[in-house]
Amino acid sequence: MAGRWSNDDIPWGRFDPAKVDPDILAAVKAAALVERNAQDYVAYLNNVFPDDPQFQENIAAWGFEEEQHGLALAAWAVHADPSFDFQGSLARFRDSFQLPLDATASVRGSRAGEMIARCVVECGTSSLYSALRDATDEPVLEAICNRIAGDEFRHYKLFYEGFLKCDATVHLSLWQRIKVAVGRIAETSDDELSMAYWAANHAAEPYDRVRHGNAYALRVGRLYRFGHVRRAIGMVMKACRLNPQGRVADCIGYAGWTFLQHRNRRLARAAA
Length: 272
Ligand SMILES: [Fe+2]
Ligand SMILES: [Fe+2]
Description:
Layout: H1 22-36, H2 39-48, H3 53-80, H4 86-96, H5 111-135, H6 139-169, H7 174-186, H8 191-201, H9 209-221, H10 226-239, H11 247-271
Helix pairs in contact: 1-3, 1-4, 1-8, 2-3, 3-6, 4-8, 5-6, 5-7, 5-10, 8-9, 9-11, 10-11
The structure holds fe (ii) ion (FE2) (2 copies).
Residues 66, 122, 125, 152, 155 line the site of one fe (ii) ion.
């Protein structure tokens, strides 16, 4: 399978070690593990959509692109820190974190719900890599994140169209749509990201969900600007079939931005 781009397209010659931020490096190492682990999600989604060969084909291409994100981020992390053992970290992460691969139906209760949850994830990744691209001074990481962010916005579109198709058959109520979206957002504090952060950066110490999760959340949360938050919230609202542009969306956007700033300050105080 060929993707839209590969590590050969990255301008590695422009790498500037003096512009590597250690906090961004730690977050990138964790993100590389999560992205590289996408095949488990491909297997899970194939279980949820066993009778849709076209969607399975799209999911295979999606999984390939997510893995490419992991490979590019890992290669950049090794440039920045040649001691980074990507394969060892990935093995540790995969040993510790398991998806429900034996599931034969969506853990969200419906296929439409599954698509909303996938949209929420792509809102998170598209905003993360946009924020990383805009925050870093390191030219190669900026180029990588620019490509990844473009892919993540396309992934959102893939799952949004999947949601519309599923929702046309089995319609979810507004409450059900919001419940899935909010539930998936709340899961960002579950084990996956904190375990990836631990496996990539602190494997010599015991895993601590709260401590390692907070360390990751602070490093990532500080990268965001208002525009990243506002756009992500609009995309989540669109996936719930709510108006992403109106006054309500603006209010939720400001509330989300205020919450993030408070959380960043709280996490910084706790880490000090
Ligand atoms: Fe990705
Ligand atoms: Fe994605």
